[in-house]
Amino acid sequence: xxxxxxxxxxxxxxxxxxxxxxxxxxxxxxxxxxxxxxxxxxxxxxxxxxxxxxxxxxxxxxxxxxxxxxxxxxxxxxxxxxxxxxxxxxxxxxxxxxxxxxxxxxxxxxxxxxxxxxxxxxxxxxxxxxxxxxxxxxxxxxxxxxxxxxxxxxxxxxxxxxxxxxxxxxxxxxxxxxxxxxxxxxxxxxxxxxxxxxxxxxxxxxxxxxxxxxxxxxxxxxxxxxxxxxxxxxxxxxxxxxxxxxxxxxxxxxxxxxxxxxxxxxxxxxxxxxxxxxxxxxxxxxxxxxxxxxxxxxxxxxxxxxxxxxxxxxxxxxxxxxxxxxxxxxxxxxxxxxxxxxxxxxxxxxxxxxxxxxxxxxxxxxxxxxxxxxxxxxxxxxxxxxxxxxxxxxxxxxxxxxxxxxxxxxxxxxxxxxxxxxxxxxxxxxxxxxxxxxxxxxxxxx
Length: 446
What we know:
Layout: H1 2-32, H2 36-85, H3 88-97, H4 116-132, H5 135-142, H6 147-178, H7 184-187, H8 196-205, H9 211-247, H10 253-278, H11 284-308, H12 314-341, H13 362-369, H14 388-407, H15 422-430
Helix pairs in contact: 1-2, 1-8, 1-9, 1-10, 1-11, 2-6, 2-8, 2-9, 2-10, 3-6, 4-11, 5-9, 8-9, 9-10, 11-12, 11-14, 12-14
């Protein structure tokens, strides 16, 4: 199971690294006009260099600086964009009149892209898998001196993440209020939805020298932070789970350092070529969430089974995780193909080009508005991407429990108590069904 989990992490890194590189390249392209494939090698070389030289310590220190830049630029864009429009009242009124203040649909239909169910249930489970079992996150937590520090860091992280999301939502409102009567997607001023915010930045901050550069540096900071963390974690996983078991204790420190640096360099270079694939696969946010959830949803199920269901053995858990992984991979790939080919589209809200102050191709606008159709029918490929993590975890848990009828139930006596959740430990001690069963304690060889 450990090798399977490590393999999933490596696979996730392979598909996610180019996404992390593509985002700042897309922004830089919109702001400066320099080609995406000119920028990506430069970004990767810089990130690979300081990850190789500084290790985890270097990654953490650069993350601190990058976070300050990221939040600072976010605040500047929100304030300047609001003031240019005439205040918060104007932003709110234009979004209300344009139908952008709609709440998620109150429905349990899993094919609705953003419903209350998918956002608050699927979204919570998505963040659960990305923070609780993600090697890149856990590695940072484990570098702290005590459990108390880990909890404090987790609380701070949660608050910071909520503030970041709120800031991004408000920038979306400012973006619509700015272009409510001249949609840049319809006129061709922006080639992708991911370029709308950089376009807003150039309009709002372009008159102030240095501020567009501040925004670009913020996007690069966020991307480099994710990229360096993942590269560092990837090198540690490959070393500990694939290389060291083969080499044994004979590996010298110099060999360890060389191996980790080679991993960083190899995967960094491979990301350059994977960018060509990513740019063809639709919106970056949805693509990232889809790939991450489809890969780590089954792994969340594995951890859930391990902590809460001591009667499920390793073989049953492995079968459940493999079946869930293959199922989620099939769903994710086919859903992404449907999005790229246009056979599956979500309903678009109406836009306007009635007050544009520049010339554009009207046929482009007419073609874009003619595509405002909801998908016909529904299938498993239409399931909201926010539910992928929950679906993958649920499949793992269900199939693993069913597999116990084939492989048998594991004896609870063979389970290490410290691997179980505290409330499960209490239940096993107090419930009469387990009366007399003493969980095996971990022995410490002093």
